[in-house]
Amino acid sequence: MKAAVRDRYGPPEVVELREIDRPVAADNEALVRVRAASVNPADWYSMTGRPYVARGMGGILKPKSDRLGIDFAGTVEAVGRDVTHVRPGDEVFGGRSGALAEYVCVRDAVVPKPVNLTFDEAAAVPVAAITALQGLRDKGRLQPGQKVLINGASGGVGPFTVQIAKALGAEVTGVCSTRNVDLVRSLGADHVIDYNYEDCTRSDQRYDLMLDIAGSRSWSECKRVLTPRATLVIVGAPKGNALIGPLGRIVKLRLGSLRSSRRVVFFIAKLIRPDLEILRELIEAGKVRSVIDRRYELSETADAFRYLGEGHAQGKIVVTM
Ligand SMILES: NC(=O)c1ccc[n+]([C@@H]2O[C@H](COP(=O)([O-])OP(=O)(O)OC[C@H]3O[C@@H](n4cnc5c(N)ncnc54)[C@H](OP(=O)(O)O)[C@@H]3O)[C@@H](O)[C@H]2O)c1
How many whole angstroms separate alpha carbon 199 and alpha carbon 296? Predict the structure, then answer.
């Protein structure tokens, strides 16, 4: 089968298309024929091997695995004898490392795909939408009627965050640049702030929850618009330096808020089956949809990474098989 692989850490140029052995499903795995995948900043960090402090599990000097990608949608080809939640022939979506390939073996994080989405649209969902769901519901403890500020409402994670916050009953304000204002409004945001013209931290509004996806504001700026009992959920941060990357900003925000009555939380999303099922329900109920910016073929995966690395996607970047 064909797969997008890399033998060393580096820029998108290290990624190449290669013929490798098709995997065989273990007893607890399903073999999925991937129809579409999507790329996330996590794949960028895995490709570049930056920041260095995060290399522990993936290989210190060179990557332990040559495979890339997480998000996929496709068709189940075969299942191991212990697998009962999906069957051969099922159209599914989920996440597993190595998804940028024609086939992937996946253990738990795979469920039937929403009936109203194409494979491309379904492949755009897993990491970004689970991040939005867990950030709002678990870390942000969002309650209906609360006011939520979403800084970075237009990239991979932002559009899902706007829609899921609305589905959870919040009053949503999305922050984006001029060219994305219509997109964010069309996703259901009650208010949209264009960061080219307006500073969201200088508004008279007070928010119960802020999800910082863009990572563009300091703690002293954020706290101006947070109620005394509010929560700031740190979702993303700029790439930072080679050694500690985005971690520097996260530590700074946490330290800055130590004496505050507000909560500041950072988390790494977990790709778990129950949350994939909740997302499928939200999508099939028409409450959440995928926004796809660009599509690339598997042979163009390096280009997909180049575009992701620019950090200005308007929705998700999908790789089709
Ligand atoms: N914690 C987790 O588990 C988790 C999971 C997934 C992703 N993340 C992190 O979340 C971040 C975003 O991921 P993504 O997939 O959405 O990335 P992305 O697709 O590259 O999107 C980045 C978005 O940020 C916007 N942006 C840039 N500067 C901004 C600013 N000053 N104010 C407001 N928005 C701004 C960009 O919009 P413009 O083009 O309009 O500037 C773009 O839409 C990354 O740091 C990623 O590592 C974390």
Answer: 35
Quick count: other Cβ atoms within 10 Å of Cβ 51?
18
Ligand 1 atom 37 nearest Cα: 312
Q: How far is the CA of 253 from the centre of ligand 1 (A)?
A: 17
Closest atom of ligand 1 to 239 CA is 45
The per-residue pLDDT for 56 is 80
Close Cβ partners of 186 (under 8 Å, ≥ 6 residues apart):
none
| Domains by residue range for the chain, with CATH | 2-125+290-320 (3.90.180.10), 128-266 (3.40.50.720)
* Residue showing tokens 């194409």: 118
* CA 101 to ligand 1 centroid distance, Å: 25
**Cα within 13 Å of Cα(267), Cβ side:** 21
Q: Is 171 exposed, middle or buried (0-12, 13-18, 19+ CB in 10 A)?
A: middle
In whole angstroms, give the CA distance from residue 10 to residue 49: 7
Q: What is the pLDDT of residues 153-170, one digit of tens each?
A: 999 999 999 999 999 999
